[in-house]
């Protein structure tokens, strides 16, 4: 069973290696541009963000988190479901590929800006907090988004080529694509649980360190 899975995974990776390279490149470009955007941020907006972060760190270190986890989980899950459903729908449209790439770019930009701003203002302590707040759930969310982006793009391209290749069973491919989206959705829901219940634990530890130094 393990050998069968390994063989199929190897075949899948070889068939989509170019698509994954391109998707990862778009994500990395988003991260880099997000980090560079910190440098051109106006001073007044930077000051507002610093003040907000200071209050946020203080609240976390003192355990005064106003946002209830029970309220947050619904919002985070809804956002993750919305992202997966949107990318699933875009896969069925030939013109959806640029929008899929934009979603990936935006995800990278947010990560890059967050890490860049924290490191720019707090150096190593900011990097510590960035890892604590971003890494746990994104270990699941980013690979899931990449898989979904590749699946949506390849399915959309297959719709373009279906008239050239008569052997393509469009309904079978659509079901297989939808099954991938369902699996990605399950991973994204796990990522939401980590974001709401696990990441704050590390964030509080990091915030305590930030406020004491």
UniProtKB/TrEMBL annotation:
Keywords for this protein: Membrane, Transmembrane, Transmembrane helix
Transmembrane stretches, start-end: 12-38, 85-105, 112-134, 140-160, 180-203
Pfam families hit by this protein: SpoIIM
Lineage: superkingdom: Bacteria
InterPro entries, alphabetized: SpoIIM, SpoIIM-like
The name this protein goes by in its record: Stage II sporulation protein M
């Amino acid at each position: 069973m393990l050998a069968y899975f390994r063989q199929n995974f190897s075949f899948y990776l070889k068939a989509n290696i170019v698509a994954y390279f391109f998707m990862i490149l778009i994500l990395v470009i988003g991260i880099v541009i997000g980090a560079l955007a910190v440098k051109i941020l106006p001073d007044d907006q930077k000051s507002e963000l610093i003040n907000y972060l200071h209050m946020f760190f203080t609240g976390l270190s003192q355990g005064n988190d106003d946002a209830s986890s029970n309220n947050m989980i619904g919002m985070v899950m809804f956002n993750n479901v919305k992202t997966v459903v949107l990318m699933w729908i875009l896969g069925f449209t030939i013109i959806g590929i640029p929008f899929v790439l934009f979603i990936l770019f935006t995800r990278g930009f947010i990560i890059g800006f967050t890490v860049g701003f924290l490191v720019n203002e707090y150096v190593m302590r900011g990097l510590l907090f960035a890892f604590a707040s971003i890494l746990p759930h994104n270990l699941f969310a980013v690979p899931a988004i990449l898989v979904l982006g590749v699946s949506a793009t390849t399915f959309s391209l297959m719709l373009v080529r279906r008239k050239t290749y008569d052997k393509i069973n469009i309904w079978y491919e659509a079901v297989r694509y939808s099954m991938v989206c369902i699996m990605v959705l399950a991973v994204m829901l796990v990522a939401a649980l980590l974001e709401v219940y696990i990441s704050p634990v590390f964030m509080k530890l990091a915030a305590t360190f930030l406020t004491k130094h």
